[in-house]
Queue: 2 jobs
Job 1
Amino acid sequence: MMRALFQTIRVHMGISMARPMFQFIIWASPLFLATIAIFIYSSASPERIFHYVILGSGFMALWSSIVFSSASDINRERFYGTLEIIFVSPIPFAVILIGKIIGNTIWGFLSMVLSFVYLVFIFRVDITIPNPFTFLLAIIFVLFSLTVFSFFLSLAFTLSRQAEALMNFIEYPIYLVCGFMFPVAILPIWVQPISYLLPPTWAIELLRQVSTENSNNVALHSSVLGLLAVTLVYIVLGIICYRAVEKKARIYGKLGVY
Amino acid sequence: MQAVQRFFRQSLLSYRALFGWLDPKVYILVMVLSPLSQLLFFSVLVNYVYSGEGLVGYIGANALILCVLNSVFGIMSIITSDRYMGTFQHVMASPVNKAGLFLSRSIAHVLNGLFTSIIGFIFGMMIFQISIAPDAILLLVGVWMVSIFSACGLGLIIGCFCLWTPSMNLIGNILASSLLLLSGANYPQSIMPVWLVHFADFIPLTRGVELTKQILNEGNYSNVFALLGEEFVLGVCFFIISFLFIKYAEYLSRVRGTMDLD
Amino acid sequence: MSTINNNIINVSQVKRTYKTEVGIIKKKKKEVDALKGLSFSVNKGEIFGLLGPNGAGKTTMIKILTTMLTPSSGEVSVLGLNPVTDAKKLRPHINFILGGERNLYWRLSAYDNLAYFSDLYKIPRSEQHGRIQDLLELVGLQDVAHQRVETFSKGMKQRLQIARGLVNNPEILFLDEPSIGLDPVSARKLREIIRQLNDNGTTILLTTHYMFEADELCDRIAFIDKGELIEVDSPQNIKQKTNNVSVVEFSVIGIEATKIQEFTHHPDIHHVQFEQQEFLTKVKLHTTDPQGAVPIIYENMKGAIIQDLSITKPSLEDVYVQLIGGKVS
């Protein structure tokens, strides 16, 4: 089982990268976004630059890789007619799906690192992380949480054709609602509950907290708990969607076509 | 008169034939909602960072840039889509004047870009509850029209590149991102490194964005004539270059036989 | 039927070389001769067939005649014009159709496709409407004139292509494999249209892989292979040339290929082709002495079961295979 998972990750990372659009999203797009962000924030304090430019553009890279790959992967398989083949293979479909998502998340993470490195070397941005070990733990937690969210998204988008059409247009709305480049607090009050239903909001909040010097423990704990809670919610939602997709496929026989 | 009518008929028919986004649902999603969500993101960001300073100019500039990007993609389809359908060789072998044909095909995309960017701007003004001086409106439409023309010229050149490479989406995206970055739609151009500013001088929309900001923020109309003239010349140059590329492709196909227009 | 004076296409010693570069880092220049000095002429009002295997140079020739490609050397004249230098003058008077489903705007209706190409050929608006209606009627698409092409079947698309090729009422129509991939009924309908056009005075030059189609349609045929002309004449004459040859056909069960190959050594048997099928092997022999050949067959194949033996006149396909030489695929 683990071998199948690793194989899927490896193969899928290759397949994804073969698409020119994905290459653009991983290698080029983050640099453009990071440059635009640093120009906009050019006169801000180092801490704000770290929170909103470095973390913000990093998260944009991560999110784009999820939007343009994980969420649409099932539909792509369906288009090529390979979905049924995967579905009937002895390895559980969930393992293959998770493998794909981990593969994309790894690319997204590399893309995030690329934009860090770019900002540090080209724009001489200072990065001082008060507690690197905690920061690393937080990153791992964040990546896990986003993998869960992708799992839910990719299944949810398989269930509805309408939703699939929307897929390509949720890139910027998420940048906006989850406050990648500015605090969520500046958004209108009625938008903020939506923001806090989405894991990326909590995830970037957590990374900002752990990288702030003398951050208070209450804020840190609340963002850890918040992320944990939404992650659990999406695990449950993911399982529900998985069952629904399986049912749709096996009972109604509607995997290949809508 | 025949020729003029033919010009616009070709423009309309090829827009419908080559541009797949005619389904109203898809049109609204791709041509309107998607740019609007980007516009909203950048407007909120800029409003936050600059504490509202120069906001109306930035919203105008973003409306221009973001909505025009679709036109740039659209104009690339004049060549790529035609080739994909296998009609390009028939078009090239017909007696029609090619420069006139490609110009007529471009017009629809220029108008489409103007339409969506005006919608974008109205949307931005409504969200942030701002208004502009009535005398600026007509001027702004003129400035945008010329800027979009110029951007479409560059788009057509990129479309020609696609006769040589299959990665149209990749090139198109790089172009779109470069326009967003270089035009200075979200920051004063003075922030950019000098060499980048010089580079931006040869890019369409840079002057259009600058004028949009000057007109909307400062009520400064004094540079319109000069900058708009430059933008127009730039656009004409782009179109001439793209026609030369098309001619060269035809030469490669016809004489050298190294390119297949099919 | 025809006189030398009314040639409307003249091709003389035409060569075409493609230079291609192989490899990205170490560039090696490679030259491919697509046409090696081809000469033929087409008479006004005839249907002329260009036949040959894949890679023979048929499409290259059509591209040269339709101004889309220039020859490396040699003389070409179409309607008295040189397609290389007089392309602009020539284009309004000719048109071409490539087989397959592409080469149309799928998102437009049949009518709009024709209107668009009419504009490209500068047909005055006043004439367009009537002309397009006539064309749609000719190809039997008048009822679906305003439906999008993407909803059409393959045969309908191919017929629309024919209509598209006729928007400028060309004096010469070039067709590159017009019937490729069509079902028999659609293909027949297409042949009817081609014949009808020809009756109305359009000169037609077509390429095809289907021998019976060429036999049925063409006034004259040119066989070309590897860029060279093998034979040019009417289908009847070409078949006549092998008049003394008969084709002996049979199926055989339980024999090895080498045994069949042995027939080639026999002086009266000129050509052997065979095709291995699931249980049996289909064999075709060309011979000037069928009476003598039949006993030889039975003698050589003792122990095997021979079925469906027949002696026939060679078809155009038999002549083609004999001339071009080769295997039946």
Note: Chain A has a mean pLDDT of 85.
Job 2
Amino acid sequence: MEPTNIAAPEYFHKVVDCQWACPAHTPVPEYIRLIAAGRYTDAYMVNWKSNVFPGILGRTCDRPCEPACRRGRVEKEPVAICRLKRVAADNKQDIHNRLPVIPAQKNGKKIALIGAGPASLTVARDLAPLGYEIVMFDGDPKPGGMMRSQIPRFRLPEAVTDEECGYILDMGIETRFGTRINSLKQLLSEGFDAIFVGSGAPRGRELELPGRKEAGANIHIGIDWLSSVSFGHIDKIGKRVIVLGGGNTAMDCCRTSRRLGGESVKVIVRSGFEEMKASPWEKDDAMHEDIPILNMLVPTEFLHKNGKLTGVSFEKVKAVYDAKGKRSLVPTGEPNEIHECDDVLVAVGQENAFPWIERDIGMQFDRWDMPVVDETTFQSTIPTVFFGGDAAFGPKNIIWAVAHGQQAAISIDMFCQGEDVKKRPPPDVAIISQKMGIHEWSYDNDISNDLRYRVPHQEKALALADVRLEVELGFDKKIGYAEAERCLNCDVQTVFAPNLCIECDACVDICPMDCITFTPNAPEDELRLELKAPAKNRTQDIYVSSELKTGRIMAKDEDVCLHCGLCAERCPTGAWDMQKFLLDLTLAGPACHSK
Amino acid sequence: MTYIPKPKLHHPDLPKNKLGFTHRDYEGSVSTLCAGCGHDSISAAIIQACFELDLPPHRIAKMSGIGCSSKTPDYFLGNSHGFNSVHGRMPSVLTGANLANKDLIYLGVSGDGDSASIGFGQFAHSIRRGVNMVYIVENNGVYGLTKGQFSATSDKGSKSKYGALNSDSAIDMVAMALQLGATYVARGFSGDKEQLVPLIKAAINHHGAAFIDCLSPCVAFNNHIGSTKSFDYVREHNESVNKLDMMVDHDPIVADYAPGTMELVTQHDGSVLRLRKLAPHYDPNDRIAAMSYLGERAAQGEIVTGLLYVDPQGEDLHDYCNTIDKPLNELGTADLVPGQAALDKLNEDLR
């Protein structure tokens, strides 16, 4: 193998699995260390810079970081990264004096943001401090978009949404809430320098089955129903409820139903339990609230009597796999299963819809009738119009919306300053030795043996009685500290200097994970098998040194390294050093400009 | 040394031996020696050897004296028996323990100070008596604990860290062991575990006095230019006479070597040593030839390593003393105090 190029920022960035997996590339270990140190406000601000909504995301994030977490590969479960974020948010002090100063002198550019959801709010946060004049439109009366309308209050208290949207709106954003944009053509003529479309994926998918019309009074589209609950228009539901669909919206629907009078609430999905789109923890939470999840049942008909819904008929199916492993659902031939109910909530997906964008204004649409949007710049085919969040490439989640918003803000800023939007700014990278003494490091390298802590929950009877009572209570400071200590500090990198190595084997002997091998060089496939412990995880790199004095190389499998620094402590010559690799995404601003 | 204990977490795909242990289960507490000390590599080699031999840790007794090397038994085999004796007296304590309980595997760990100076006589007698043990000298040629004075194994003419030249003749521990009648004699290097681990394994399976001289550079006081025990010097002057594989289960022998380059030695316990010859005419069964070969190469400034001599049918102290099969410490009062009638009979026999 060729010696690893550790100067390329991607190499060490990839080692920080959580940060690599986060769409917004939040420096996770950095803020977890701050939490462990009790510096909650600092931890919050690291998050706020990267992901804008730490309090909201600390409760609702889809957490792509956690499946990626190295801790999950060395013991049973990953660090509870998401819940630690909430610890920072819950315990921080007033942050107003840390927020960017908004210049009184504006830069003369005016930007329209369509929608007041996470993507638009992110664009506003990144552009307002640069002197842009921002006008934000939303059909709803309050900001937050789906964070406010679709996520139930028992998962996300309204006060948290108000607070974190407030930090942004207080930057002098002009809001036109309650104003739905019905014509892009009209808006284009109003003299904005750029328009950002962050209108989400607002349309819940329909389920056109026999009986849909006749029983329509008791069949509701999930996201619309959640929104009505959210804004207080609906406060009860029938005793027997069926939720159709297996995503997170379905989980929110069923758990909300339990709180609005639903006594027998069932989730019924077409495919298998394992293939459901809902996050595993959301399924657990639903089942904990006595909601059964029935699978392999395809709805065929809404049953009704005298114009009133009486139940749903389901065809039983089984999964059949063809030679290529492709799955299809095939009827078992058994008689249909009837589930009686008073109400049905349909949560079978949502989609983008742009009836308000005229097709004759020069915007190119693709074959699914979606606007063509550049995946890097988020620019549409009308140069002044940018997209982000669910509106750009279909439904994802909040953290993706934030990531889109940051990139779109960069593009809008560059566009307005006459720069080429295709020239993306490189990230800000720093790598600093953590050595403080012979065996002292500026991070805690003593690995905790604790298993993942459970988040305490509100008592079930109380939780089910109030749709606004938050279920998860969050970690207190003590558990927060203990959970933070589970973090392996993967951003503190093992950096090897081949010219200093005397090949004494000390690092090989002390490494608790058998990560390090001194061996003759070989092609990667062979090398992976010849290491002290076989390196089977191909998604993780092998760190290879240049040739050493004996003709061998040092090969380190990054996969399960604990970053405990023992290799560096045992090294007599300082050939190993522990260096913190800090990568910060560049946000909109002067760093993006060539002039 | 390190200030934190080695984390308990280990690689998820770590192999297990027949007892269900990983090599991590044979570790001891974390080493307090200097970072990079050769002794720590020897500890790791002992851990690996015991793991590969599927040894139950509670059947091993590790004995040591005083010195950097003699501290190491704390750093391996944390679940084995151990005795840290006074300076140079490890061989006597080991001999006593072995006499009392012949069923344990005895691992004597010592250094060049402990064995070639203060304990030289003890070393000599334990070897000539053929105590069934593995005697490892972790040989770095200096007194590391007292800041690097020359030890008795320092070569004449070698230079200390502070520039002084050694004027005394060196004791060659391997030559001594051969002279004194050790039935298994090897030399290894802490920087070459591929060679060292099989040497330790074969020594453990050897019946009789097995002696290993292991060169172990002292990174703090004897790893400089002018030293003959530094990593660089040993690597440059290492002449390995053979490559050893140890087979416990009589694995099929793969004959992938040219005829005459491979030698099989069956030890007392049935284990087979497979020796691949690196020095064509070297015969590890010929003690006298081994002694003269070592002398020749030493005169050329070379350090001969590998399995230097083995008498596969070696005998031990218990054989010489004709002791009973049962370990003496298991004998009860009835065995040890058989009564007046037995005494009378004995007296009668001696009349």
Note: The two ends of chain B are 65 Å apart (CA to CA).
